[in-house]
Amino acid sequence: MKKILVLIGILFFASNALAVELTVDEVVSKANNRSYYQGKDSRAKANMVVTDSQGRTRQRQLTILKLNIQDGGDQKYFVYFHKPNDVKGMSYIVWKHVGKDDDRWLYLPAMDLVRRIAASDKRSSFAGTTFLYEDISGRSIDLDIHELDSSDPDFYVVKNTPKDVGAVEFSYYTVKIDKSNFVPMKAEYFDKSGKLYRTIEALEVKDIQGYPTVTKMKAADLNANSNTVTEFSEIKYDIGLKEDIFTERFLRNPPQQWLKE
Amino acid sequence: MVKGVELKKPVFFGFIIFICAVSPVQAAELPEWHGFVEQAFGPTISRSGLTKHNDYNMLEQRFQLKTRYAIPGENLLSDWNGVFTYKGDFVLDEYFDTTGSYEIRELNFAFSPSSMLDIKAGRQILTWGTGDYLFINDLFPKDYISFYIGRDDEYLKKPSDALRVSVYPKLVNIDFVLIPHFTANTLPDGDRLSFFDSFQGGITGQDTQNNAVKPAWQAENFEYALRLYRSFGSTEGALYYYRGFDPSPRSYLDEANRQLFYERLDVYGASVRAPFAGGIANLETGYYRSRQDAQGGNRLIENSAWKWLAGYEKDLGNDLKIGLQYQYEQKLNYDDYASALLSQDYYWDKYRHLLTQRLTKFFKNQTVMLGLFNFWSPSDKDGYVRASCAYDISDQWKLTLGVNIPWGEDDTTDFGSMKKNKNAFVRVRYSF
Q: Which of A252, B97, B157, B411 is the most buried (most CB within 10 A)?
């Protein structure tokens, strides 16, 4: 009888442990949803400060409206530039697609020009900052092979190796994910010779409407010795954005109610 | 620009008074003002000896002020998302003996009286179509002097005094523009830039005597522009219609008095733009109907024409982009035109092929931009090289250097007639 109880006990704990221990793909998927797909939609104001190797700073200030079309899949973004002053009033729409190139449009108010942006290179700088387009809108999780590098009581560390090595400038990157809420806390990118050259770090995480949200993050380019710190403010989820906001109409006439200074 | 000063000032002050009157603003809600101060200098590379100055074709200080003011509070205009926009330039033009001028580029009120309707009334910049520096269905006014001397791209577009009504039913989006007062393109006129003057039979500068007669301000001369557009997934389609005047004076009113005029013009067009082979492809066409010479037999009036444009732009990675375009133009009823010509007439060719190429490369976290734009017409045997380098020194300071090199075998073609206007330019701008 005792033996049976022990056996049941072992089975119970074993199955419990199995239920808790997620596969690496599940971890990556949860972290991806946490970073990019929380809520049905969201609004945030981003203040980005770029610091170059000589300590000179530049500022970018923008409002980002985001709508999930498909959970973990397609999304639409509206970006409105407040600063610097020479690009103030420019707006930008991205229809993010998983599995094909995004559609992007830029509106230049001084010329009343809607320019369609050829955007096959997602690993180019976002608005001249240390962040890349892919950091802002998310890198499709299908593009990498994910392996669990290490795991301690607090964090998973996932190693991500690109399936198409020629398409990107890194050979792999690791992401440290908080086990309690699946927020990615730090990403480290290694170049083709295996040297760490780029990091992205969450500096502050807050609970907003029940969603754990990164409110301050830093991207550093270790080769150029430059970095960008982004602080998000006025974050709000589930504000009821409609799909028509992400069209040429609102590109030309930015939606006032979401863009108050 | 200078000539308009007297008319425009009262409009501006009227606008300020109107803003103050309609909105009981508190100090905290006062609109923000932004703009820039710019010094620009454009020394010539080729000296024509024909224009007012031989050594340079641009020397000016520019002060731009702009504001955007969303009507606050609980009232009808704020419910309609009413927004005032003002943008105006003060220019000290040392080319013309330090003449001061003031140009309003935008002065309009935009509002949405219903969820399916946007209205914008007043002075505004209007642009549509898919071309890059090539315009088939965008007949809105352009300033080609600014283009050739190296002012910012913004100044290629001239404002129109217009009413724009946009309607968004489910099936298709509709833009309708009414322009009560004709605005002509600003074209080289000999003072600043030399050009081909058919009355003088060669490239001419200040001593040109030709003049262009603008349509009078009356209801039958109102201009209308219409665009219907929608997207099919990632593909964008548009249909265009324009009824008005050719914004460049291509027809002869009175040869003895060297008078040109802006002939009446209807344009019917269409365009498609879509992702293709990892880039963006566009196709656009326009049928130009010359209403005062629909049969084409009048040698003094521009004939009808077809224009076609195909373009492709691709991001090659590493902040390098390339754009290619091909434009084809064909004059219609050409035989009727040709048989009406007199032996001493300069004449238009039947066909024109034009190729363009744009290269844009960014360096240093996109703070340094190198740009090269090339026009080349194998049929006209002419072209135009625009190269520039822009450096964002800081969020406030920007330095732009560049060259404008039009060239051509003949004096009579579009770029060939500009060939004595080669220049370099430097602009330093402080934005606030």
A: B157
